[in-house]
Amino acid sequence: MNAKEFNREYAVGSRFIYLTGTAETGGKVVRTKDVARDLEKSGAVVEISLAPFFVKLSSLKPAD
After folding, report:
1. What domain range is 58 assigned to?
2. Are residues 35 and 7 in contact, defined by beta-carbon separation less than 8 angstroms?
3. pLDDT averages per 10-residue partition of the chain, 64 residues
4. Which are the contacts of 49, defined by CB distance < 8 A and separation ≥ 6?
5. Which end of the chain is less crowded, N or C, counting CB atoms within 10 A of the terminal residue's CB?
6. What domain of life (predicted)?
7. Structurally, how many domains does the chain consist of?
8. For the whole model, what pTM was predicted?
9. Residue 59 exposed, middle or buried by CB count within 10 Å (0-12, 13-18, 19+)
10. pLDDT score recorded for residue 63
């Protein structure tokens, strides 16, 4: 999913599970803090409420 599609589907402040490791460890619930952006070399990223603060969209799973 690119940033334009992500922004169309999810509003700023949406809740996600930030997948930090394997399926056994699960993840942390976070909120988006800004719109997603497409970066040339890194792909699409979005700012979240916890460190590392900017993550790839592929590391997020909708919480709702």
Report:
1. 3-62
2. yes
3. 97 95 78 97 95 94 90
4. 30, 31, 32, 33
5. C
6. Bacteria
7. 1
8. 0.87
9. middle
10. 92
**Structure tokens of 55?**
């993550």
Residue labelled with tokens 């169309």: 8
Alpha-carbon distance 41 to 50, whole Å?
23
pLDDT for the residue numbered 40: 93
Taking a C-beta distance cutoff of 8 angstroms, is the pair 56, 2 a contact? no
DSSP secondary structure, 25-50, as one string: T-EEEEEB-S--EEETTTEEEEEBSS
The length of the chain in residues reads 64
Query: Are 1 and 44 within 8 A, CB to CB?
Result: yes
